[in-house]
Automatic annotation (TrEMBL):
Cellular component aspect of the GO annotation: plasma membrane
Protein name: ABC transporter
Pfam families: ABC_tran, BCA_ABC_TP_C, BPD_transp_2
Keyword Membrane: yes
Stored PANTHER family: CONSERVED COMPONENT OF ABC TRANSPORTER FOR NATURAL AMINO ACIDS-RELATED
UniProt keyword terms in alphabetical order: ATP-binding, Cell membrane, Membrane, Nucleotide-binding, Transmembrane, Transmembrane helix, Transport
Length: 908
């Protein structure tokens, strides 16, 4: 027991350090809405400034400490004003990526200034030990723990009991409302970044003596810090403190009790990551704000251009380029494969994974073991390692099924750190400093040994990239690509159209991991031995950074971004200009490029180049006749009535924690009938639709479609069974065209498409039902327009048209008339009746426009505080005193004048 306590107390120092960094991170997030991945890098700056001033320049302790902390705080304030403030309205992922670029920039700047070797730093705290009941603990660790505890208490008290804390919470929740009350979100953002950076500097100064001051290691401290902050939901200072201490103590105890390589570094925050995954949800909740991600290319391939370019490049590689340029081209193409995996994952699917370099490294390790231990030839080892990486990819994709955005980025970075600690630094697995011999390299009998003939190996890697790029282009043009874009734009809308979000994410991670595996193997096997000591988490961050700089949504962006990698064409150019330049310069340029592009042009160099080419093409073709667009509307035929289908809901109850939103509601929607569902705000109408369509799990009740149970099925399977819906918040694919939104509704959901689209993507054609839906709602002439350019009324009609285009059996419309003009409401009323009378749909309408409800619906159900208080024809509902009292706030019998009823549909 004494040993247990001893090592637990030893972990207090690390826990205190994590606390300081984590509390600063939470503070900056509360003030600016930015999750700062560069928090560890700010600690690095503070530590190095103190080291420089105290040990190199000889300043006294107090002035050195104050200057280092103040300078780091000023840097944090400048970062907020120059980078984060311009990104205030940008997507969350854009802000996260900017902090990743900042992290890379600071780390490489530190390497250029102070060198890559760790520096030994004198402690400013007493280093003697104290005996507590026979257990010895360093006084410095106790002081650090006390500092962390006091900081936590102060932050909690200020946040909980002061006007400033109240204003900070208000500005965090609603900046516009806080500004209207006289509280400046900009001031709070700047102040919290100043304080957060100052706290990070103090943490760096206190941490450095515990191990060393290392530009490679200290920025990565952000991983357990992020895990602790997310465990506290980026809000609670006490919970963040508890999680930080548990991580530090857990690492210390695991280091003593568990002797397996890397477990001590990995286990504690992997457990917290597991909690984050369990706390997530398969689909985002109502009110989830979808990120605006970089634009994507069309995936269109021009054979008359691609084939000659490939032939010319092959000739240059084999016959013209010097050996040093050939080697640089090999590195560039291998890195381009790694970046191409990010095009699939982040560009198409919107999944910010920071583990792609680790995936490539694992594939390289597998291939090395197969060659060196199993005696397989390189070609067989390459193929088999790619196959074996697929289950690893699926395992890594599991957190993405329940998390997204910041949580997924933190989790994947944690996985990357764990793989590095457990595998790459394990000499028994990875071969240590000597590495794993690569043996002879031939591909199905063709000698491609990079040491004997570098040109052949470079050509091989180049051709592998070309094939992978063509496959990714096929995916972009096919149904699989449209599914991924739908998922990245709006997961809830994708699921409502029958698209399996889980299957789509799994496919994206699998394809991206296969491409990354090819990149990792070809990069590692260019040398005589596989050395894994350089496979650090920072390399995975560089993959994301370079992909963003190149243009993560474009195939050409992977090549442009890869030129920033060490040993690539960028290095070759740098070495041609300068004498023996430090490789950190490329990392510095890459980090700076990420920051600048995040602020000014998130579409990267490829997107900017494409805009320039399009502008030139427009000038050249100004006088040329505009070609007619291809007709994708298909045959215009009147849809046949759908098979008669009845939706039955019995005893449905929905609870959110201790609040009952829907209580024991039963109703039946029959084919050819329009049933209205009305009630005051907060009555549970949308919660009812969410439960029926699978977006909210009911606490009790049954949902049947023609007698078949639906309540155990996920949302996308209910959609495929014939239950379609529109959303109160529209949930359209905002960056796509009207036609692309309708295409998504025409997807049959076949999993086979994910395989066939790799080689032969299908040209999309609207179904007759989809074309008729566009015609019914007068959207055909708008089909090529972007959703964002439409008026609100047209967007509302598009949401309905997309639901109708699924050719469902049951249609649930959530406030379809909201925001429409009087004429549009009348036209919509006619369309809804026609969908019921001629198409045979069973329709449930939630609406506040009583004129629309009473003139359109056959029957009406009324909810109040989640309970069903009325059912009947429109005339019966208007005459029901309980309904009138609940809905209008008065009893009809006591009214001085009997209100004139709204005309029913029969009276029109």
């Amino acid at each position: 027991m004494t040993t247990f306590i001893q090592f637990a107390l030893l972990g207090l120092g690390a826990g205190a350090a994590y606390t300081l960094l984590a509390q600063g991170l939470v503070l900056a997030y509360r003030g600016s809405g930015v999750l700062n991945f560069a928090q560890g890098a700010f600690a690095l700056i503070g530590g190095f400034l103190f080291f420089e001033l105290r040990q190199n320049q000889g300043l006294p302790l107090v002035p050195a400490l104050l200057l280092a902390v103040a300078a780091t705080a000023v840097l944090g304030g400048l970062v907020y004003d120059l980078i984060m403030r311009p990104l205030a309205k940008a997507a969350v992922i854009a802000r996260v990526i900017a902090t990743l670029g900042l992290m890379i920039l600071i780390q490489n700047a530190a390497v250029l200034i102070w060198g890559a070797n760790p520096q030994s730093v004198h402690s400013l705290l007493p280093t003697s030990t104290l005996s507590l009941g026979g257990v010895y603990v360093g006084i410095d660790r106790l002081i650090m723990f006390a500092i962390a505890a006091v900081l936590t208490a102060v932050l909690w008290a200020v946040n909980r009991f002061t006007t400033v804390g109240l204003a900070l919470r208000a500005a965090s929740d609603n900046p516009v409302a806080a500004a209207s009350l006289g509280w400046s979100p900009t001031t709070f953002g700047r102040l919290t970044w100043l304080l957060s950076s100052a706290v990070a500097a103090v943490a760096g100064i206190l941490i450095a003596p515990l191990s060393s001051l290392s530009a490679a290691d200290m920025p990565i401290l952000v991983v357990p810090v992020l895990a602790a902050a997310l465990f506290g939901a980026l809000k609670s200072f006490p919970i963040t403190f508890l999680a930080s201490v548990l991580i530090g103590v857990g690492q210390s105890l695991a280091g003593y009790y568990v002797h397996a390589q890397g477990v001590a570094e990995s286990l504690p925050f992997l457990l917290i990551i597991a909690v984050l995954v369990l706390r997530g949800r398969g689909l985002p909740g109502r009110g989830h704000v979808n990120d605006m991600l970089p634009e994507v290319g069309s995936g269109r391939v021009r054979p008359l251009l691609v084939i000659p370019l490939v032939v010319i490049a092959a000739f240059l590689i084999l016959r013209v380029f010097p050996i040093d340029l050939v080697d640089a081209l090999t590195v560039t193409m291998a890195w381009a494969l790694l970046l191409l995996s990010m095009t699939v994952l982040l560009g198409y699917a919107g999944q910010l994974s920071l583990a792609q370099f680790a995936v490539g490294g694992l594939a390289a390790l597998l291939a090395g073991k197969l060659v060196n231990d199993a005696g397989l030839p390189f070609s067989a080892a390459l193929i088999l390692s790619v196959v074996l990486i697929v289950p690893v990819a699926l395992l890594i994709s599991l957190p993405a099924l329940r998390t997204r955005g910041m949580d997924l980025a933190v989790i994947s970075l944690g996985v990357c750190v764990a793989v590095t600690a457990l595998v790459f630094t394990n000499g028994d697995l990875a071969g240590g400093a000597a590495g794993i011999p690569t043996g002879d390299r031939s591909f199905f009998g063709i000698d491609i040994d990079p040491l004997m003939d570098p040109s052949k190996y470079a050509l091989f890697v180049f051709l592998v990239f070309v094939v992978c790029a063509l496959v990714v282009a096929n995916v972009r043009r096919g149904t699989a690509g449209r599914r991924l874009l739908a998922i990245r734009t709006n997961e809830r809308a994708a699921a409502s159209l029958g698209i399996s979000v889980f299957a789509g994410k799994g496919f994206a991670f699998t394809l991206a991991s296969v491409v990354a595996a090819l990149g990792g193997v070809t990069l590692a096997f260019k040398d005589s031995a596989l050395i894994f000591e350089n496979y650090q988490p920072m390399s995975s961050l560089l993959v994301v950074a370079f992909a963003i700089v190149g243009g993560v949504g474009y195939l050409s962006g992977s090549i442009l971004g890869a030129t920033l990698a060490t040993g690539s064409i960028g290095s070759w150019i740098l070495m041609s200009i300068f004498d023996n330049p430090d490789p950190a310069w490329l990392g510095l340029v890459g980090g700076l490029g990420v920051v600048l592009l995040a602020v000014q042009n998130p579409n990267g160099l490829a997107g900017e180049n494409l805009k320039l080419l399009h502008a030139i093409a427009r000038r050249i073709r100004k006088s040329a006749p505009k070609p007619e667009s291809a007709d994708t509307l298909g045959r215009r035929v009147k849809p046949k009535p759908c098979p008669p289908t009845t939706l039955e809901v019995k005893g449905l109850t929905v609870r959110y924690g201790g609040v009952t939103a829907v209580s024991n509601v039963s109703l039946t929607v029959r084919p050819g009938e329009v049933l209205g569902l009305i009630g005051p705000n907060g009555a549970g109408k949308t919660s009812f639709i969410d439960a029926v369509t699978g977006f909210t799990a009911p606490a009790a009740g049954e949902i049947r479609l023609n007698g078949e149970r639906m309540d155990r099925r996920p949302a996308h399977l209910r959609a495929r069974a014939g239950i379609a819906r529109s959303f109160q918040s529209l949930e359209l694919f905002e960056t796509s065209s009207v036609q692309e939104n309708i295409f998504a509704a025409c997807d049959d959901g076949s999993l086979r498409t994910y395989l066939t689209d790799l080689f032969h993507p299908r040209t999309p054609v609207l179904t007759p039902e989809a074309a008729a839906a566009l015609d019914e709602l007068d959207l055909t002439r708008h089909r090529d327009e972007l959703v964002g350019s439409l008026s609100y009324g047209k967007r509302r009609l598009l949401a309905i048209a997309r639901a109708v285009a699924q050719n469902p059996k049951v249609l649930l419309l959530d406030e379809p008339a909201a925001g429409l003009s009087g004429q549009e409401v009348e036209e919509l009323r006619v369309v809804v009746r026609r969908l019921a009378d001629e198409w045979g749909f069973a329709i449930l309408v939630v609406e506040h426009d009583m004129s629309f409800v009473m003139q359109t619906c056959d029957h009406v159900t009324v909810l109040n505080f989640g309970e069903q208080i009325g059912y009947g024809t429109p005339e019966e509902i208007q005459a029901d005193p309980a309904v009138v009292e609940a809905y209008l706030g008065q009893v009809a019998e006591t009214a001085e004048e009997e209100p004139e009823p709204v005309p029913s549909k029969e009276s029109r």
